[in-house]
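Hey, why these numbers?
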Amino acid sequence: MTAQRACAVSELEQDTPLRVVLDGVPIAVVLDSDGEIHAIGDTCTHGDISLSEGFVEGKTLECWAHGSAFSLDTGKPLNLPAYEPVPVYVVQIDGDDLLIDPQLTKDVPVA
C-alpha cells in the first residue's frame, strides 16, 4: 500500500481534529499549536467513540465522551478509562497535500 491523499494541509485548523477515512480506516488528523501535523486512529479504545469530535490540548487529543486523553505522538492513553493505545500513522506532505498510508503505522516505543 502507498500513501493516499487525506486532505489539503490548508484545510487543517490549528487544534481542531479532522476525521478522514482511508481504505475504511478512520483517522484523526491534528495540526497542533506548534504547527506539527499528527495522524492517529480516530476510534477511542475505551468506548468506540470518534476522537476527532474531541478536544486538542498541547500534544493530546481527548475523547469527548469519557475524558481519556491520547498522546498525539505515541497514541498512548494518558489517563483512564482507556488503557489501550490507538495507532499513530506516518504523515507525508507533498505541496499542499497531506498523505497518509492507512497500513503504515509509526513504531512507537513501549516504555
